Amino acid sequence: MYNFYQTIKHVIKKIIAIFMLVITIIFLFVLAILIQYLQTAHGFESLYYGQSMIYTLYMLWPVFIIERTLHLLFCCEKTGKNILITFIMMLIPPLRLASKRCHDKEYIFWDLNWQLIDQTLYEHIEKRFLYPILIVSCLMIPFWITEIIFSKISHLWLTHLLNLGNAVIWSLFVIEFIILCSISKKPLKYVTSHWLELSIIILPMLVLARFILIFKYLQFSKTAYLLVKIQNILNIYRARSVINRIIRILIIIDIVRRVYQHRNPQKYLQMLQDKLDDKEQEITEIKQKIIETKTLIKNDEMNTI
What we know:
The chain is mainly alpha-helical. The chain has helices spanning 2-37, 43-46, 50-75, 80-91, 119-149, 156-183, 187-193, 195-206, 210-217, 221-253, 255-263, 265-304; strands at 100-101, 104-110, 113-116. Helix 8 (195-206) packs antiparallel against helix 10 (221-253).
């Protein structure tokens, strides 16, 4: 009987996890569409079912608030840190993707099941995102270049294509960043070392044309024009950031090494040997510094005595 109840409990938890995962992705994608359309003047007016999307966010938001409240009450200690994390997740529902299992922070919901958080899982998820991110990164460049070139030309179909494409791309970047950051051993280090990805996520939110619309209603046409120019500059910077991201991915998947290794194996072997010599020299220097530091500590202890 005990095993039966445990099985039922496990099934219920899994159903809840799947349900929350689905509505989190829905919330994120709807939010992404709104953000993209709000970046251009009259963008929201051209968005079909724009008001319905806003109502969708309003209706889904309480679900996250209730779920996070229950999680805080029954699944973790009521510490200041957990309360702060809960509050932040209530304010930013997509962060729900980083939620850990009830009473067990060592597990995260991935591939429709609870997975142990370790280096193996991190590498698995990173590889899973690698090629989709590479593809959408390559797609972002022509999207933004087209957006800049045709910024003064009104093509409704082009506007929808750019906005929906950017929304999908932006959502994928957000999902990857949140999940990998949450399972990283050092989240703060992950954020600082992946600032390019973070900039790709943040930049679209910095140029929301709600400001443009406000200035338009106030008849500050010059200020609105300046903000449009700033938006174009940020789009260029955003495209440059994605190019750097593509280069980083190519380095990770080692395409250049594979080509070079097969075309000139002897020269590649020598390059590897030189690199190994440099690393060994670096290790030797670090060991020497460790010995010097230990000696210094020992001398300080003797002087203290």
